[in-house]
């Protein structure tokens, strides 16, 4: 739940305002009623199990994947199939009155058919109150790739209802830590947004940190201690080829990509203390962007692709700063506590998300860039590594739960939380991959 | 602080043994701080025999001057201090604590006297906060120790720093005690 | 458990070949034969005695031949007379004998007749006995035959029965399976129906609660209105029209607040909604409070936002409206709703 800094005005004030407004509007011919607040809860949606013709591959059903996707956002409350009064698969079978009775706003129906090694899905989304179809499509995928088909449907449904593209076909990168033969084992993994189909990309007995997605989703930059000190690699996912791009004395850490994928921001301490540099990946040329005795680290380009957010303790403790252009005089963004670090702006330029200490706990918070207003988003208390979904609607972060480190997804305004299924060992450092067209 | 109490007690204990075990021939070795096991200590003034190290029988030795004794004592103290190779920090600072200064001075002097000796300075942080910032914080702590050593006599070439941030805790757990023990710099002599 | 056995009828066998018919026919045949050979004798019908007379016992004595002897005439006359006398006496005797014979004959004949009759009777009895015996034998034979047949039939029947039962069992199993599936389907259907009923009941309960709350609010509004009416009427006679106007306004405000509250609860603005988005809808209501029409008069520029507003408006099945018809017509017959999210500070 949120610790909202905004608050509702008193009812009398509201009534007074209303009274004045209506007194004025009484002079007009027609009454005007203003609705300024909506329901503070998730939209009820029914995802009806799709009809199937032909042998469907084993594994989760398409409709249950869609259901989980929509639930993960915190914006939807899906109806369990056992509560459905009927299981339509086409418009003629949809009795809108039934779905109104069940309190549903939207109902998704569809049918899957198998032909050879491909599966085709025909699906339709209906607005129950308006009794209209708002989405209808046929999509197909190889039978071995049903999950991608389901995520595609989730993307479309999400966009049809909210107007925002869905982020369900994106990938996650993260690090897991467990032990093998008494030694620590770090693994860099890439999975679907729901944690499924995880694949190990790097395994090491020394720590791996800070995975960062290239804008085209094809490469990961990360920090590896495999040589005994932090070094930055760029790892090509399709081939497994990787290149060591920064191995200077001292720190080589906190890589962050530019929008064109051709340069990396990074933290180097080769000149004495941790400063932010930009490296041109083609020429390996370095440009120093900060020059302060304080720690300057955790850089991230903003939504414009030109300005840079970063963490600096130049004011005594770590705070979020912003440079409008690389190398410009930084402006402090956060003020509300003595520890604010690891800024991650969304792609729309609305908010920046970061780790925020309040009392003795570390939460994820966000600041609205237009107003400077800060909101704490999480109730958990050992939070790290926030990463925003590319559509700006969800956030993933690492936290401790029941003694182990897990990944949790929340809606970007701090609504419902959804913990990813626990994999082996500890999970940390999630990075949300880009939307891939 | 744990550090000071522990080291004080330890130093005290050793000092007691040391004083009692002062050899008239100045048998305290200058290499690595190990005593010769066959040297017996004789207290010149009291005439009693107190043994340090192995029991090998007393060996008469010539009288030690006051100066030499004091020097020996000082060196033993230094040796004791150099037993300490881990230094702790408060949350989000790289400030070297008062109690650590004497120890680091001892290390610096030792390094100055042994130019062939190299040491790796490893900086760490507790698990709270963000990993990258903690990496930088660990480095800052290691750098602070490095600077201090240089100021006090060590040469830069003997020193190598590396930071592990929060990645290699000494103590697992999420308690104040565990965190306190993880905010540290360790000296690793090579 | 219901009896799945259907009525077993002999199917597949033409009626004239059925064992029952066969035995009946046989019986008729036997009966016919028996009857055909049956001599319908009664004690009245006698064969003529001639046929029996072959076994007469008594015979007629032959007439003695007249012996002629040469004797003197007198003597011969005397003898003749005596002969005549003897002849006359003989004739008389013969006549008497004849008579006697005739009588005896008659008696004999009667006796014969009687014997014949007796024999006839006996014969008939014997015959009857024999017939009966034969009948009995035949009956016995028939019975045995029938028995054998019955056994045969029974055996066939049993076989048939067995076949039928096997058939029936197989069918019953099939039926059972079908019934099982059907039952499962019915079960699922029943569950769904139950759920439907429960949902319906729940919905009705919620609806009833909501209606109750509405009614309570309406009652309160009415009571408040009544109080105001009385006061204004007492105080301002001259400004009756003005007072009426103010009253309508304040009453309408209550319902506006109600409508606003209901719509707020029913509106799910999309998460991408910004404070700049404003959608205006024109609503037309029926005097019952039901929605007669919705029109988007001013779009927010964002389809998802507009649709969320339309959805909210359509989700209310009945809008709370004042009972006073004039107020309703003035303010709530047609009005505008504006959706514009604001974060209030």
Automatic annotation (TrEMBL), chain A:
Source organism per UniProt: Marinobacter adhaerens
Source superkingdom: Bacteria
Protein family per UniProt: Belongs to the TolB family.
HAMAP family (alphabetical): TolB (MF_00671)
Subcellular location(s) per record: Periplasm
Protein name (Swiss-Prot/TrEMBL): Tol-Pal system protein TolB
Cited Pfam families: PD40 (PF07676), TolB_N (PF04052)
Ranges of residues in domain TolB N-terminal: 32-133
Keyword Repressor listed: no
One Gene Ontology CC term in the entry: periplasmic space
Assembly with partners or alone: The Tol-Pal system is composed of five core proteins: the inner membrane proteins TolA, TolQ and TolR, the periplasmic protein TolB and the outer membrane protein Pal. They form a network linking the inner and outer membranes and the peptidoglycan layer.
Residues making up the signal peptide according to the UniProt record: none
Regions that span the bilayer: none
BP GO terms, sorted: cell division; protein import
Physiological role: Part of the Tol-Pal system, which plays a role in outer membrane invagination during cell division and is important for maintaining outer membrane integrity.
Keyword tags: Cell cycle, Cell division, Periplasm, Signal
Primary site of residence: periplasm
TrEMBL record, chain B:
One example of a Gene Ontology biological process annotation: cell division
All residue ranges annotated as the OmpA-like domain in the record: 76-190
Keyword Membrane: yes
Statement: the UniProt record of this protein carries the keyword Lipoprotein: yes
Cellular compartments annotated: Cell outer membrane
Alphabetized SUPFAM superfamilies for the sequence: OmpA-like (SSF103088)
GO cellular component, one term: cell outer membrane
Keywords: Cell cycle, Cell division, Cell outer membrane, Lipoprotein, Membrane, Palmitate, Signal
Signal peptide boundaries: 1-20
Oligomeric form and interacting partners: The Tol-Pal system is composed of five core proteins: the inner membrane proteins TolA, TolQ and TolR, the periplasmic protein TolB and the outer membrane protein Pal. They form a network linking the inner and outer membranes and the peptidoglycan layer.
Family the UniProt entry places it in: Belongs to the Pal lipoprotein family.
Role description: Part of the Tol-Pal system, which plays a role in outer membrane invagination during cell division and is important for maintaining outer membrane integrity.
Identification of the protein by name: Peptidoglycan-associated protein
Taxonomic lineage of the native organism: Bacteria, Pseudomonadati, Pseudomonadota, Gammaproteobacteria, Pseudomonadales
Encoding gene (name): pal
